[in-house]
Write a structure and sequence with these properties.
single chain, mainly alpha, Arp2/3 complex 21 kDa subunit ARPC3, 9 helices, about 70% helix
């Protein structure tokens, strides 16, 4: 058996499904960045609004890495990075623009979206480190496990990626705003919540990955170098 035959399979990123998944990935990221400007408390637990959708960013990233490989996933990660920066700059430009006569919501706009640049900086730092680690770990595990033990590479990559992401994001976004036990609560709860949610949604991730693999004509071709 040659080295090429032993290499894991991936689909070609040029296939029509790849852009759709990438678009969903970027949209989830941008929406989560805006939602993260609000801190939410459920009993003793403190989370930010990004907790609703941000775990799905990682699930989508897992799908990209599993089906299309590291290089294709990395292209989408960098696209998400660019769109997050663009959204922050756009909100900032809107904030600085003169308000029209009769529009009295400038203070409200600044109190919410005026905080987005710090959130985006935190998100970008955590996102890049976390997502790239998540994708890299998943692909490395797949080199050893091939098509078996999907659960192991999905969970293993999530544990590594989410930890790096959560620590970087929480520190940059809310350190100084939250202190002491509140900050530790925020970091630990955020990490555990995001990781457990991905575990709970594992059956759905399995089905999505299986469907995409079945509908990607190029998946049986080794395109790991794409």
């Amino acid at each position: 058996m040659t080295q090429t035959e032993r290499a894991p399979h991936y689909a070609r990123a040029s296939n029509s499904i790849y852009p759709i998944i990438s678009a969903v990935f970027v949209a989830l990221l941008v929406i989560s960045n805006v939602g993260a400007t609000k801190l939410i408390i459920f009993g003793p637990l403190i989370v930010d609004g990004g907790a609703f959708l941000f775990p799905l960013v990682y699930i989508t990233g897992d799908v990209l890495s599993e089906v299309y490989g590291f290089k294709a996933a990395r292209r989408t990660i960098f696209l998400g990075f660019a769109m997050a920066i663009l959204s922050a700059l756009t909100f900032y430009a809107i904030q600085l623009s003169p308000s029209a006569p009769g529009w009295e919501n400038q203070a409200a706009f600044e109190s919410i979206l005026g905080f987005v640049p710090r959130i985006v900086l935190a998100s970008v730092c955590g996102f890049l480190v976390g997502q790239l680690l998540n994708s890299y770990v998943l692909v490395k595990i797949k080199q050893r496990t091939q098509e078996s033990a999907l659960w192991f590479r999905l969970i293993g990559s999530t544990v590594v990626g989410e930890f790096a992401d959560t620590l970087a994001f929480c520190t940059i976004a809310f350190y100084g705003i939250l202190t002491g036990k509140d900050f530790l609560n925020y970091v630990i709860v955020g990490y555990v919540y995001k990781t457990l949610l991905e575990v709970v949604l594992l059956p759905i991730t399995y089905r999505v990955i299986a469907w995409i693999k079945a509908n990607e004509p190029s998946y049986e071709v080794n395109t790991a170098i794409v």
